[in-house]
């Protein structure tokens, strides 16, 4: 009884910290599951089917070129009608990853759906374009004017409705458009009959070293997938330690077109957190024990 009376505080601390460890373990596993559900976005990846490709859509695809360096220093575009065209380098912060889309500004179908879907994902993303990453849309139609680009930029920034956000809409000559598209593997075709461009919908992620680092496909993008792609592209320059830790529990599923949890990495990470909690428990108990001993000697 004397032992229990003297170590009541220690036993209580052991019980409390044991509960904390279990809660932390369960909370992390639950958090990984929440991220797996899309971090607030529950869009499912589009099912890919092997259908016969119409002739007009032949060679309209995306050939991934991960690791390819974008020759941004020799690609010149305009954001407005004032002054000369500037290299793509002049429109981006070299210390940040870049989110790039290729569209055209008089598109009557896919482009608007694609960019509107991106806006919805960006609204829920806790990273701000222009602050944590560059956001650039380049027109694949050389006939698009700087004035039209400015109008589209204004419209989409209003739709995004986030203070301080930056989104560059650029136009340029055909040779620069082609070289940029080729560097990221974006293959498109102009149809004279409809006066429209046939192309795919994707977001390209470029590292600060100008290398293509990730592709996300489709017309809807979950905040989780956008964040993970940016974290990967930033090469350690973006994200908190916890976000980087959670990223280790996911991998990009090329078939599904999104990030999926890795069970083994999730359990390993949870195990590390559990061990850290136990270490904290041991340290606290040792300090408690020393304090009790000092009290006994003082008496």
What are the defining features of this structure?
alpha+beta; 299 residues
Q: Could you walk me through the main structural features you see in this protein, from its secondary elements to its overall organization?
A:
α2 packs antiparallel against α8 (263-298). The chain has a domain at 58-239: Glutaredoxin (3-Layer(aba) Sandwich), CATH 3.40.30.10. The chain has helices at residues 2-6, 8-36, 110-124, 146-160, 174-184, 223-234, 241-247, 263-298; strands at 76-78, 86-87, 98-103, 134-139, 168-172, 189-191, 196-198, 202-206, 212-217, 250-253, 258-261. Residues 19-29, 31-36 and 38-53 have low confidence and may be disordered. The longest helix is centred in the last third of the chain and has 36 residues, at 263-298. It is built from eight helices and eleven strands. It is elongated, with a radius of gyration of 26 Å.
Please state the second-level CATH architecture of the domain at 58-239.
Answer: 3-Layer(aba) Sandwich
CATH topology of the domain at 58-239: Glutaredoxin
Main beta-sheet annotation? 7 strands, mixed
Radius of gyration: 26 Å
Summed up, the helix count is: 8
List low-pLDDT spans: 19-29, 31-36, 38-53
* H-E string: HHEEEHEHEHEEEEHHEEH
The CATH superfamily of the domain at 58-239 is Glutaredoxin
Query: What is the first-to-last residue Cα distance?
Result: 19 Å
Helix content: 40-55%
Structural class: alpha+beta
């Amino acid at each position: 009884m004397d032992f229990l009376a003297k170590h009541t505080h220690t036993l209580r601390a052991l019980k409390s910290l044991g509960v904390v460890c279990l809660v932390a373990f369960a909370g992390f596993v639950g958090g990984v599951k929440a991220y797996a559900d899309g971090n607030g976005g529950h869009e499912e990846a589009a099912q890919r089917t092997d259908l016969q490709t119409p002739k007009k859509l032949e060679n309209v695809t995306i050939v991934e070129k991960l690791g390819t360096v974008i020759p941004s220093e020799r690609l010149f575009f305009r954001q407005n009608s004032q002054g000369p065209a500037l290299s793509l380098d002049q429109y981006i912060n070299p210390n940040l990853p870049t989110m790039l889309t290729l569209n055209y500004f008089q598109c009557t179908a896919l482009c608007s759906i694609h960019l509107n879907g991106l806006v919805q994902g960006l609204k829920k993303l806790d990273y701000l374009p222009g602050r944590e990453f560059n956001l650039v849309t380049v027109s694949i139609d050389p006939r698009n004017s700087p004035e039209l680009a400015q109008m589209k930029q204004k419209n989409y920034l209003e739709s995004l409705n986030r203070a301080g956000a930056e989104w560059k809409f650029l136009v340029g000559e055909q040779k620069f458009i082609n070289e940029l598209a080729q560097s990221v593997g974006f293959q498109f075709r102009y149809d004279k009959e409809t006066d429209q461009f046939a192309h795919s919908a994707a977001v390209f992620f470029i590292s600060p070293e100008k290398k293509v680092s990730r592709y996300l496909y489709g017309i809807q993008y979950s905040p989780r997938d956008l964040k993970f792609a940016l974290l990967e592209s930033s090469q350690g320059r973006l994200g908190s330690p916890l976000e980087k830790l959670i990223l280790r529990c996911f991998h990009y599923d090329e078939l599904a077109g999104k990030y999926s949890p890795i069970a083994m990495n999730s359990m390993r990470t949870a195990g590390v957190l559990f061990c850290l909690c136990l270490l904290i428990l041991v340290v606290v108990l040792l300090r408690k024990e020393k304090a009790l001993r000092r009290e006994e000697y003082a008496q």
